């Protein structure tokens, strides 16, 4: 990255506008960095690497270009919101309600907000995988504890990973949607779990568009 003596101050200004500690920004950026190193980047004449700059920008809910622009012209600064570009981790029994009406006021107190694996659309939300039904012996796998990102605005197609319900919106399931002849089935990646045929009461809540590991290093399907 081209040396810029003030990008650190732009990072610091955004972090403080969010009311975040140094540790909070490190955690939101999903990088291995000490708070001392971050403090040095914010206050000293030292430019971060491209990787670090991009990670910190994403953690702050912005881009490197915006940080550089704010560094050159402090009057261009716009105060960020707490959950800029983040999406909520929604309780499973509220997934259908969130997909229909994404209202943060209905979320339980203390709900987590996380960075998605890609730029989210308006209604994307996250769920924590809660069982071993989608943990495959090999290939793509969704172990318990991982975070999936769900897009209610995306049309479900055969072979998509989807979240839906079989008639009870408060009891959604996470499966792979498969087509056998003219019949749709819900398939688990774990062969110990049986397939379920899609009936008239089945409704797709959203298509899974991303996956993040339990240790929060990120990843995409």
TrEMBL record:
CDD domains: HTH_XRE, S24_LexA-like. Transmembrane segments: none annotated. GO terms for molecular function: DNA binding. Pfam families: Peptidase_S24 (PF00717). Residues 11-67 form the HTH cro/C1-type domain. InterPro entries: Cro/C1-type_HTH, Lambda_DNA-bd_dom_sf, LexA-like, LexA/Signal_pep-like_sf, Peptidase_S24_S26A/B/C. It comes from the Bacteria. Coiled coil: none annotated. This is HTH cro/C1-type domain-containing protein. It comes from Pseudomonas frederiksbergensis.
């Amino acid at each position: 990255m081209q040396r810029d003596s003030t990008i650190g101050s732009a990072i610091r200004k955004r972090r403080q506008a969010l009311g975040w500690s140094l540790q909070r920004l490190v955690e939101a950026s999903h990088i291995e960095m000490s708070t001392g190193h971050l403090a040095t980047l914010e206050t000293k004449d030292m430019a971060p690497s491209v990787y670090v700059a991009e990670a910190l920008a994403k953690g702050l809910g912005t881009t490197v270009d915006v940080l550089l622009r704010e560094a050159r012209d402090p009057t261009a600064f716009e105060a960020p919101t707490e959950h800029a570009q983040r999406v909520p981790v929604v309780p499973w029994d509220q997934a259908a309600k969130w997909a229909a009406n994404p209202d943060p006021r209905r979320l339980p107190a203390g709900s987590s907000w996380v960075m998605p694996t890609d730029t989210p659309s308006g209604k994307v939300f996250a769920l924590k995988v809660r069982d071993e039904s989608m943990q495959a012996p090999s290939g793509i796998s969704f172990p318990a504890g991982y975070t999936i990102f769900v897009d209610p605005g995306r049309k479900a197609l055969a072979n998509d990973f989807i979240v839906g319900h079989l008639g009870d919106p408060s009891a959604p399931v996470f499966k792979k949607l498969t087509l056998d002849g003219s019949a749709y089935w819900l398939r688990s990646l774990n062969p110990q779990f049986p397939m379920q045929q899609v009936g008239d009461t089945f409704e797709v809540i959203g298509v899974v568009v991303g996956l993040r590991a339990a240790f929060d290093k990120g990843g995409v399907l």
